[in-house]
Amino acid sequence: MKTQDIETFDLVGIGFGPSNLALAAAIEERDAGASLRTLFLEQKPAFAWHPHMLLDDTVMQISFLKDLVTQRNPESRFTFINYLKSHGRLSDFINLKNFYPTRVEFNLYMAWVAERLKKYVQYGCSVSAVSAPGRHPKQLAEVCYFDASCGQTHTVLARNLVVAVGGQPKFPSAMQVRHDSERVWHSSQYLHKIARLREPAPGHRFVVIGRGQSAAEIAHDIHGRFPQALVTCLFRGYGLKPSDSSEFVNGIFDSAFVDDISAAPPELRSKLFEDHQDTNYSVVDAPLITRLYEIQYRERVSGQVRLKFKNFSKAQRIVEGERSVQIVSEDGRTGSEESMEADTVVMATGYQYPNPPKVLSDIANDFDLDPDSKRPKVNRNYRAAMKDGVGYGVYLQGCNEATHGLSDTLLSNLSIRAGEILGELLGAQAGALPRDARAAIRHVSLSA
């Protein structure tokens, strides 16, 4: 097929989760769709944000003001407040006196925004390859995708790509887990898999591996969902640790901190990351820790212990048998191996964010790599540096934690990041201005 026969877009987005949804909102508000021909491709059949971790009563860990748009443009029609108003719940939400909506409601809010921006996205489209074949003299990227709605493969050309594919489930090294296993699964599959269990036999042994927020939420959910089940939490440390969400520390999720850390030398970045891991990694909201401790204590009083915590234990191997699962762990105090049996194992072991994402493997040689990290160099506004002669642009969202800070994989900075990416796409030179002026541009320019 000739180049002129293939549809060309100014921007092709791969993935339509919160990051690219926020970008679509910015494009719509700036009326950039008229000048920036845009297509987002999403493999899911409809918008969904971590659908299998939308547990009842779990709440957001960020303020509703950190929605898809408010920090960039408080007057936007896509704010969480406007969502509440349109559903007749604004006064009721205010009466809650709470900054933190449930995760279920926040997902509904984002789906509401996605519905209003559906002209930009094609669902059920899985990108199989991104390339830059010679016939396009590296000025355009070629995106090949499978459309489940018609069962056909299509190709489009892009002057710019923005990739936001989210994290991939992470498992302890050297641990082999079958994706289709009914006994061992990652937390990302939790609600889907737990529904298939229905009502397990009394004494069914659940083991939850991990000690972060997801692990704690899953352990609490299983304990309440199945009153006769046994639940063991297995983790490397001593106990569950609370997340640091104090006022000064919360500043690391602000856009101004991204300015600081992206300009900092690698040694300082590493130090800051190490110092503040307890804002996001292997930590749990304090009220949930209290709830789990109270459950454990009351069960010890009654003598009916169903919830246990096995600390200092590093999972080494999992052997799935016909009727049960064997977990081999290393005791951190002695180095000795221990074995335990389980009926169901949930791996709440987090996610990994490859940079560049796997979907870009065919154009990996087009990136200008950092000589030390071997990752693409990414500027302050999330544009990857390309080798000489490469004319198409690539923007990376959600895989730049090492250079842009702990907020990169989270929702905290989505609205401002969307404005920064769009500003660069439209040729804005905000990055060359002083910080105060740059902040003003972030706040108002995209609402013009």
Major β-sheet annotation: 5 strands, parallel
Task: Give unreliable regions as ranges.
Answer: 428-448
Q: What structural class do you assign from the helix and strand content?
A: alpha/beta
Task: Specify the number of helices.
Answer: 12
Ends: how far apart? 41 Å
What is the count of β-strands? 19
Describe the structure.
There is one protein chain. With about 450 residues, this protein is α/β, with parallel strands linked by helices. The protein has 2 domains: about 5-165 and about 355-445, FAD/NAD(P)-binding domain (3-Layer(bba) Sandwich); about 170-245 and about 280-350, 3-Layer(bba) Sandwich (FAD/NAD(P)-binding domain), CATH 3.50.50.60. It contains 12 helices and 19 strands. The chain has helices at about 20-30, 80-85, 90-95, 105-115, 190-195, 215-225, 255-265, 265-275, 285-300, 400-405, 415-425, 435-445; strands at about 10, 10-15, 40, 120-125, 125-130, 140-145, 150-160, 160-165, 170, 185, 205-210, 230-235, 305-310, 315-320, 325-330, 335-340, 345, 350, 395. The model is unreliable at about 430-448 (pLDDT under 50).
